[in-house]
């Protein structure tokens, strides 16, 4: 009985998620169309073609890998929301992980799915409201937020976030973490081509390598 | 209508799109809370999840506002507001806008002075289409993918749990490595300074910046401080039974780490 209820709730999450994401996609595509109509401006077709040729292949490839990597971590509702509102690895996913850790729940359970969705929905709402307030108050906020004294704090947000989150997760799974952390340290320190902009591409690499190492350790009975 | 990248109508249109996105978040929040009530989940746990998620989000959201301000120089305020409320990030938006500008035979920097409606529409199309993959791919594959994961879990529960942890650890390991990406400046610098050609995110203009050879240690120290503070929170929870610390440990440690970045940068991260 419980399984049937669980199944139907998850089905409804997927049904609603599909409707919402397709609706958002249509609204997003309408924006440049309507702007063009209002200002009587067609796109520069050559510029559009070249701009897409330079940009789309890489970001579509990264996007596909991100979808495959993040869905199992975010849960269903969290995935539909996160891939619309963005900032996944630096905000939505850490937020969901923290909520699941605090609640001691697995995202694969129905309770975990709910907690992950609640955390990501709240995070999305708060982010949207703060950005809207920032836009509304951009004149008085600009000198404060652009102050060079504060700049290092915002520049170092990711190290501050992943220090706290990393120690909590790695301490619970240290056997799994040794090899991937060592690999990533070697790669990022000694391969000059890997800079701060490479982290998005290296997340799937880290995930695939960790799964391979975990499988090996599991088969050997070491974890 | 005469075009301006800060025309009021653009704010109205962006406001409508963002309202739809906000409605989706509210819808899923209400839906999941209703389901939580139906299956008898602990109300206090849900309340804590909401409060913690809200507090945790403030600092990253403020950093996104800074990004909007940076991009507003070249693209106006409305477009960065839209792009960073839906899917985007500074690095992606700046690259997409610069590529669209280059495709039109101009540069992002030229938009600081003036931008035509055609240029604005072209940039917007490139930004929108190039980042859209997640929005349509999740509806296409999520249900089948999750069913596959569930049937996989039923076959081998222990391996399924390890696999889940491996996903998290894989992501964390990439970010741990990223924190060390500039440590090599220590042995690659000349006369204590390391030259980096940087592209201004707002204008796309390149300039050479000279960083102190020790500047790569700043993120390492910030991460170590934040991790140590997290350990201290763990001690407070276990030894003093301050269980409330558990709910706020991540945002507290993150903000403390960010605050410590200011003196660390002053000490080690100078620029010429």
Secondary structure elements and pairings:
The complex is a heterodimer of chains A (223) and B (272).
Chain A: H1 2-38, H2 45-74, H3 76-85, H4 88-103, H5 110-136, H6 138-145, H7 151-155, H8 157-172, H9 174-190, H10 199-219
Helix pairs in contact in A: 1-3, 2-3, 2-10, 3-4, 3-5, 4-5, 9-10
Chain B: H1 8-38, H2 43-75, H3 78-85, H4 90-103, H5 110-113, H6 117-130, H7 133-155, H8 157-179, H9 185-188, E1 193-199, E2 206-212, H10 217-239, H11 244-268
Antiparallel strand pairs in B: 1-2
Short description:
The complex is a heterodimer of chains A (223) and B (272). By secondary structure, chain A is an all-alpha fold.
Describe this structure in words.
Chain A has helices at residues 2-38, 45-74, 76-85, 88-103, 110-136, 138-145, 151-155, 157-172, 174-190, 199-219. By secondary structure, chain A is mainly α. In chain A, helix 2 (45-74) runs antiparallel to helix 3 (76-85). Chain B has a two-stranded antiparallel sheet. Chain B has two domains: 8-131, no CATH class; 180-268, no CATH class. Chain B has 272 residues and is mainly α. The relative contact order of chain B is 0.09. In chain B, a hairpin with a 6-residue loop joins strand 1 (193-199) and strand 2 (206-212). The interface between A and B is large, with 159 and 156 residues.
